Amino acid sequence: MRSALFLLVAGLLLLPGSQSFAGTSRPSGEPSPGVKVGSVAPAVSLKTLDGKTVSLADYRGRVVMLNFWATWCPPCRAEMPSMERLHKAMQGFDFVMLAVNVEENGAQAVAAFLKSQPHSFPVLLDSVDAKAQNAFGVFRFPETFIINKDGVILNHILGAREWDDTTTIDYLKFLAKG
């Protein structure tokens, strides 16, 4: 029964988001062709808003929802409240949500954004050299990766969605328990 639920939900998460993309923006430098579902997530390190460096590898042993976004992106802003509700629903599970802001002036843009739309999940900055954006091949926003406890990419979701629906929460709890 649990495996059937897992397969059903995994298939639902693979469907594109219901909203259109805010736009595209190629990162500076030479972007990679992108990562593939089933591959190990690139080892990237980014700064938090308070200047602390964290690595994606720091979260091994936890399910990671890695969301690339920008404050100028309407679908990105629209999905943030549901991301906050998901973040709260997943408290106590081996799960972490990381929102990677891709703007050149990310620290200033995010600080202003959080004053009007606060949330409690971590925001990382990929604003200086777009290392994470290039490593993951991201240029559409929002773009989200679900990474399992072993660091393997399970899902790549393009576009915004309502992250706090019960199907998504059940799927992520299933992954976090495993």
Q: What's the main sheet like?
A: 7 strands, mixed
In the CATH hierarchy, the architecture is: 3-Layer(aba) Sandwich
How confident is the prediction overall: mean pLDDT?
A: 85
Radius of gyration: 15 Å
The total strand number stands at 7
What distance lies between the first and last C-alpha atoms, to the nearest angstrom? 15 Å
Q: Give the helices and strands as they follow along the chain.
A: HEEEHEHEHEEH
What's the CATH C level? Alpha Beta
Number of domains: 1
Strand order of the largest sheet: 2-1-5-4-3-6-7
The CATH topology is given as: Glutaredoxin
In DSSP terms, counting alpha (H) and pi (I) runs of 4 or more, how many helices? Answer: 5
Overall 3D shape: globular
Provide the helix percentage. Answer: 25-40%
Class by helix and strand content?
alpha/beta
Strand content: 15-25%
Looking at CATH, the homologous superfamily is Glutaredoxin
| Uncertain stretches of 5 or more adjacent residues | 1-31
Characterize the structure shown:
By secondary structure, this protein is α/β, with parallel strands linked by helices. The protein has a single domain, classed as Glutaredoxin (3-Layer(aba) Sandwich). It is 32% helix and 20% strand. The protein has 5 helices and 7 strands. It has a 7-stranded mixed β-sheet with strand order 2-1-5-4-3-6-7. Helix 1 crosses helix 5. The longest helix has 16 residues, at 74-89. The radius of gyration is 15 Å and the shape is globular.
Topology diagram in text:
Elements: H1 2-13, E1 45-48, E2 53-55, E3 63-69, H2 74-89, E4 95-101, H3 106-116, E5 123-125, H4 131-136, E6 143-147, E7 153-158, H5 166-177
Parallel strand pairs: 3-4, 4-5
Antiparallel strand pairs: 1-2, 1-5, 3-6, 6-7
Helix pairs in contact: 1-5
